[in-house]
Specification:
Elements lengths: L1 E3 L2 E10 L4 E10 L2 E7 L9 E4 L1 E6 L8 H8 L4 E6 L2 H7 L1 H11 L5 E6 L17 H8 L4 E7 L2 H5 L3 H12 L4 E3 L6 H9 L4 E2 L5 H9 L3 E5 L7 H4 L2 H4 L4 E4 L5 H6 L2 H10 L4 H16 L14 E4 L7 E6 L2 E5 L2 E2 L24 E2 L7 E7 L6 E7 L4 E3 L2 E3 L7 E6 L8 E6 L7 E4 L8 E5 L2 H14 L2 E6 L2 E6 L11 H17 L7 H6 L9 E4 L2 E4 L4 E2 L3
Parallel strand pairs: 2-5, 6-7, 7-8, 8-9, 9-10, 11-12, 12-13, 19-24
Antiparallel strand pairs: 1-2, 2-3, 3-4, 5-14, 14-15, 15-16, 16-17, 18-22, 19-20, 21-22, 23-24, 23-26, 25-26, 25-27, 27-28, 29-30, 30-31
Length: 552
C-alpha cells in the first residue's frame, strides 16, 4: 500500500460482491472515492482480503453508554463503517434537542451515522417520559437529509387499530420515500399481515425461526439481532442460506464492554463457522442495509465512497484496517479517531428517596396469587409467573424480598418529577445481597432498581439521583457508580475507560449473586412495556399481552 498526495492505493484479495468472485486487485482511491479497481497478478496482492465496510442495521447508540463520536471510535476497530441508528432513547428524555445532539456529535468524526425519526416518543401512554414527538415533529425530522427512515414502530396496537397519529407518521415516511422500521415481537397470523400491509418493512424482534419465516413470507426483511441482552443469532442464522437478499445483521443494544470485544464482524465469523457462503454473509452485513435504507456508504465499486475493510482472513473476520471515505480510521486493533469533547444535555428533577418509600404493603387477601416478572437471560421478553404470597417475607404488614427463593423487589422511580415509586417482584436476577440501579430503563428512562432490601435499593437509587444519571451497585459498605451525564444515558468520557468502569460494576453485580450474562442490560428492559409479557413502569405493573395495567 502506498500514499501520494490526495490518493491511496490498496492491494489485496478483493471480494467482489457484484461478480461474486475473489481475485487479486489494486484499489485506487482519490478524494475519498474509489477511482479504479484493477485486477492484478496474485503475487502482487497482499494477503489481506478487501471487503465492504460492515453496517449495524439497527442500533440504539445510547445503549453503548457512549456518545456517537465515541461509539464510532470503538466500532471502526471491528470494521464497522456505519450504522442505522434509532435515537429514540435520548428523544424520550430530551425530545428534538436529543436527536439534534446525536446528529451534531456524530458529524464530528469520519463515520456514517444514519439516524431515524423516532416514531414512538413516548413509547406508550402507560409511563412517564421526558418528552413527546407528535406527527408534526416527526415530519420535520423526516424532511432532514440526515434522517433516513422512520424508526421502529413499537406501537403495533396503534397500527392494528389504525390510530390517527400512528398512521400519519407512517404516511409521511411513505410520502417522503423513507422506509418504516418495524417492531412486532410475537405478532403472527392476520395481525402481522395487517401490520406489514401498513407499509412496515423490517423486524428485528423475532426470537423463533417460525416467527421470522412467517414475516418473510409476507414480504418483510428480517434483521438478525445479537446484542448485549437479546441474542437471536442461533435461532435465525439458518435463514440466511435461503433469504440472502432479505436478511441483515444488527445489535439493537450493545454495552461498551461488548463493543470493545467486537461488533458485526463477530456475527460474520459465526456465520462463516456454520458454513454459510461468504457472499451471503457480506450481503447481510454490508449490501442489504445500503440498498434498503438508500445509504451513502460505498460497496467496493468504482465511483463509490471508499468505505472498506481489510481482513486477515474470511473465517475469523479479524480486521486489519478500516477505511471511511478513504481515511484510515483503524489499524491492528487501534482506532485513529480522536475523542471529541461533548457538552451534556439532560432532564432530571426528582428528590432523594428514603428506604420506607420502597415499602410494599401486604394485601388483605394473602391467599391470592402474586404476579412475578421472570427475567430471561438473552431475551427482552419476560415470563409471567403466578406464585403464592408466602414465597415473600411478610412482616409488620409489609412484604419483603426473599433471596432464598430468588424473589426480589423491583422498583421504578419517576426521574422527571417527584412522585410515588412503584414496586413489583422479579425472579432470575439472583442477587443474594445489595442492589443495582440504572437510569438506562427503556424507553422512558426513569430509574429502575432491583435489590434484596429497601435500604440497599434506596442507596443505589440515590447515587443516580445525585449524579443525575448512571448505573450503580451497592453492597454493604461498597458502592460503585458509572455516571452518565448525557440524558442519564451516555458518558462524555473515553469509550475504553467507560467500558472498563462498566466491566467493574458488572463484575460487582455478579459477585453479589447474579448469573445473568448482562444484569444491567437485562434490568434496563424490565420497564419496556412494548415487549411481552409483563413489565413495570413508573405508573404500575403492566400486562404486555393485553396492553393494560394489572389490577392492584
Amino acid at each position: 500500500m502506498e500514499r501520494s498526495p490526495g490518493s491511496l492505493i490498496v492491494t489485496g484479495k478483493l471480494v467482489d460482491m457484484w461478480k461474486k468472485l475473489v481475485y487479486a486487485a489494486e484499489v485506487t482511491v482519490e478524494k475519498g472515492k474509489i477511482a479504479s479497481i484493477k485486477q492484478v497478478n496474485d503475487e502482487e496482492a497482499a494477503g489481506h482480503f478487501i471487503v465492504p465496510g460492515f453496517i449495524d442495521s439497527h442500533v440504539h447508540i445510547e445503549s453503548s453508554m457512549l456518545v456517537p463520536s465515541e461509539f464510532a471510535r470503538l466500532a471502526v476497530v471491528h470494521g464497522t463503517v456505519g450504522t442505522v441508528s434509532d435515537p429514540h432513547e435520548i428523544a424520550n428524555v430530551c425530545g428534538l434537542q436529543g436527536v439534534e445532539f446525536m446528529i451534531d456529535n456524530g458529524k464530528q468524526v469520519p463515520f456514517h451515522f444514519n439516524f431515524g425519526a423516532p416514531s414512538c416518543v413516548p413509547a406508550t401512554v402507560f409511563e412517564t417520559a421526558g418528552a413527546a414527538l407528535d406527527p408534526g415533529d416527526v415530519e420535520a425530522l423526516l424532511l432532514r437529509p440526515e434522517i433516513r427512515y422512520l424508526s421502529e414502530m413499537m406501537n403495533f396496537p396503534g397500527v392494528l387499530s389504525k390510530d390517527d397519529q400512528v398512521m400519519r407518521k407512517i404516511e409521511t415516511a411513505h410520502r417522503l420515500d423513507k422506509p418504516v422500521d418495524g417492531h412486532a415481537p410475537g405478532l403472527v397470523g392476520e395481525q402481522i399481515k395487517q401490520y406489514i400491509d401498513a407499509g412496515i418493512s423490517t423486524d428485528h424482534e423475532c426470537f423463533t425461526r417460525e416467527e421470522a419465516l412467517e414475516k418473510l413470507r409476507y414480504g418483510m426483511k428480517i434483521l438478525i439481532r445479537e446484542g448485549s441482552a437479546a441474542r437471536n443469532f442461533d435461532a435465525l442464522i439458518g435463514l440466511l442460506n435461503d433469504y440472502p437478499e432479505r436478511i441483515m445483521f444488527c445489535s439493537d443494544d450493545k454495552h461498551p464492554d461488548s463493543l470493545v470485544d467486537g461488533h458485526i464482524n463477530q456475527l460474520c465469523a459465526r456465520a462463516a463457522a456454520q458454513g454459510i457462503d461468504l457472499f451471503k454473509i457480506l450481503q447481510a452485513a454490508c449490501v442489504n442495509p445500503v440498498k434498503h435504507y438508500q445509504l451513502d456508504i460505498g460497496l467496493l465499486r468504482e465511483g463509490d465512497a471508499a468505505d472498506f475493510v481489510l481482513l486477515e482472513d474470511v473465517n475469523s473476520f479479524k480486521v486489519y484496517q478500516t477505511y471511511v471515505r478513504g481515511e484510515l480510521v483503524a489499524q491492528s486493533g487501534k482506532s485513529n479517531i480522536v475523542s471529541i469533547a461533548a457538552s451534556p444535555i439532560n432532564q432530571f428533577d426528582c428528590g432523594q428517596k428514603k428506604p420506607e418509600d420502597f415499602l410494599t404493603p401486604a394485601p388483605a387477601n394473602l391467599q391470592a396469587t402474586l404476579e412475578v416478572i421472570e427475567a430471561l437471560d438473552g431475551q427482552l421478553i419476560t415470563n409471567k409467573l403466578q406464585l403464592p404470597y408466602d414465597k415473600l417475607v411478610n412482616a409488620n404488614g409489609y412484604l419483603y424480598s426473599n433471596p432464598n427463593c430468588d424473589l426480589l423487589k423491583m422498583t421504578v422511580v419517576n426521574r422527571y418529577t417527584n412522585a410515588p415509586v412503584t414496586t413489583a417482584w422479579t425472579r432470575n436476577f439472583g442477587l443474594t445481597h445489595g442492589a443495582i440501579a440504572s437510569t438506562v430503563a427503556h424507553d422512558s428512562h426513569n430509574i429502575i432498581a432491583v435489590g434484596v432490601d429497601e435500604g440497599s435499593i434506596a442507596r443505589a437509587v440515590n447515587l443516580l439521583i445525585t449524579a443525575k444519571g448512571g448505573v450503580s451497585c451497592v453492597n454493604n459498605d461498597q458502592e460503585l457508580l458509572l455516571p452518565l451525564p448525557v440524558a442519564g444515558l451516555m458518558s462524555t468520557e473515553d469509550g475504553y475507560q467507560v467500558a472498563a468502569k462498566y466491566t467493574a460494576i458488572d463484575v460487582m453485580a455478579k459477585a453479589m449473586g447474579s448469573n445473568l450474562k448482562s444484569p444491567f442490560m437485562t434490568l434496563s428492559f424490565m420497564a419496556l412495556l412494548v415487549i411481552p409479557h409483563i413489565k413495570l413502569s413508573d405508573l404500575g405493573l403492566f400486562d404486555g399481552d393485553h396492553f393494560r395495567f394489572y389490577e392492584s
